[in-house]
C-alpha cells in the first residue's frame, strides 16, 4: 500500500535520523573533548557515561522505537515481528538508561555528593520508572497473546499517550541536566560569559529539541499510520479460537454444503442421462 505524502515523510525521517545521530556525536565530543573522557572509577569520568547513555538510548533509540511502525518498508512485515522490534529497541533504551543512573549514583556516592535533590533528578528518575512500567505493560499485554482483546483495546490509547509523554519528559529532563551540569562545571570562565563549551553544549540541547519535535510530528500524522492488516488474525487467550475464525469456518462450511449439493445434483443428472441412453439403446435394438 502506497503511503500518502511519502516524499514528505522520507524528508522528515532522514532529517530526524541525521539530527539524532548528530546529537549522539555532539554528546561524545562534549565529554571527550571538554569533560576529559570516559571511565568507570567513581570519578567525573564515570559520570560522563550518564549523558552519553541517556542521549544514545533514552533519546535517540527511544525516538526510533516510537516511529518504527511508521516506516512504510515494514508494512509488509508481520505485526508480531514489528512488535518484537519495537520491544527490542525499547529494552535496549531501558538498559542504557539504567546503566546511566548507576553511573550517576556511583559518582555521587564516591564524591559524597547528595543524591536526588534537584528537579532534574526527580523528573529523570520518574521518567525511568514510568518507562520500565510502560515496557513491562507492553510486553505482557501487547506482545504476549495472553491478554484479552478487550483489555488491549482499553489500554492501547493509554500506551500510546504514555509513550509520547515519557519521551517528551525525557527531552525536558535532558535539557535541564545539560543546563545544570554547565552551571556547576563552568566557573572560569563562567557559563554566563558564553564560553566555547557553553555554546557547544547549548547547540547540543537544540539538536535534541529538534529531534524530539521531528519524532512527535512523524508519529502524530494520521496519514503515515501503519495500515491495518486485512487478513490479520488475533489469538484469543486461554486457548480460544482466533478472532474471525468462526465466521470464516462457517462460510467455508456453507461453501462446502453448497458444493456438495451441486455435486449431488450433477451426479443425479448423470444417472438420469445414463438411464435415458440405455432406454434409447434398448428401443433401437
Describe, in plain words, how this protein is organized in 3D.
- The model is unreliable at 232-264 and 271-285 (pLDDT under 50).
- With 285 residues, the chain is mostly helical.
- The protein is 74% helix and 0% strand.
Helix content: over 70%
Question: How large a portion of the residues is in β-strands, by DSSP E?
Answer: under 5%
Show unreliable segments: 232-264, 271-285
Q: Provide the gyration radius in Å.
A: 30 Å
Shape: globular
Major sheet description: none
DSSP strand tally:
0
The N- to C-terminal Cα distance equals 69 Å
In DSSP terms (H or I, runs of 4 or more residues), the helix count works out at 8
Structural class, please? mainly alpha
Protein name: Plasma membrane ascorbate-dependent reductase CYBRD1
Domain Cytochrome b561: 15-220
Subcellular location: Apical cell membrane
Transmembrane segments: 9-32, 52-73, 85-105, 125-146, 158-179, 199-219
Which SSEs are present, and which pair or pack?
Elements: H1 6-34, H2 44-47, H3 49-67, H4 79-110, H5 119-143, H6 149-185, H7 196-219, H8 245-284
Helix pairs in contact: 1-3, 1-7, 3-4, 3-6, 3-7, 4-5, 5-6, 6-7
Keywords: Cell membrane, Electron transport, Heme, Iron, Membrane, Metal-binding, Oxidoreductase, Translocase, Transmembrane, Transmembrane helix, Transport
Subunit structure: Homodimer.
Main location: membrane
Summarize the structure.
With 285 residues, this protein is mainly α. The protein is built from 8 helices and no strands. 74% of the residues lie in helices and 0% in strands.
